[in-house]
Amino acid sequence: MTPHSDGADAAGRVLVASDLDRTLIYSAAALELTMPDTLAPRLLCVETYEHKPLSFMTEEAAGLLDALAARAVFVPATTRTPEQYRRVRLPGPPPRYAVCANGGQLLVDGESDPEWRERVRERLTECAPLDQVRAHMLRQARPEWLLKERVADGLFAYLVVERSLLPDTWVKELAAWAGPQGWSVSLQGRKIYAVPHPLTKSAAVAEVARRAGTARTFAAGDSLLDADLLGAADVAWRPAHGELADSGWQRPHVRVLTERGVLAGETVLRRMSAALTGPPT
What we know:
Low-confidence stretches: 1-11
Number of domains: 2
CATH class of the largest domain: Alpha Beta
Strand order of the largest sheet: 5-1-13-14-15
Strand content: 25-35%
Radius of gyration: 18 Å
Order of helices and strands: EEEEHEHEEEHHEEHEEHEHEHEH
CATH superfamily of the largest domain: HAD superfamily/HAD-like
């Protein structure tokens, strides 16, 4: 198969933007396979870290993604940094465009786009500085449940926590403080993200749509950091797990799946592929 071009064929011109973790790819802890082993789908490892398998998708999903990317402009849209994103080996040729760092980085043919970085830098002057937000998070955190703290690409901060020990109200209290500072808070698995409001996946995906000349956008995601991406799409899908499901978030054009875990990723791709040629379901 030859590398994908800037877009789908002239009849479709559809951009497909999808979150990765817990939407298309899943850690072992997030698979949520409740069926007997004899019925469980075959899994494909799509990410290793320190020589260990880290993320998976079903083999069926891998085939669906490969076929979908040949018919549309497929754009991974992730909160991962470019370094973390490059660990993932999705089926098929590498996508020409990828949105990383929750929209803070736009990769074109694997390289960070300098024009986009400058536009993001200008927008971030609208909110409180990263150092201030990071310092507040660390002051409020407790050593008994804080495992790690990280800054991603100098753009946002996140904590890795022991969920079973995290107080129920801690994330809500952080979000209430961060909102007036111009920052959003999201809890995804064991990670608590603090991300400035101007840093959005939807803005970066809109820039890709402009460059690629696409007419419609499909999207998928599971977390609150995906809400703007799903809201801006023409049609979108979300699984039955994640922050959006837990909060009951919904829009008229967003299809809510009944599947959870890795099987939801497979269904997302199947529904997207069908919607390229018929009404979305």
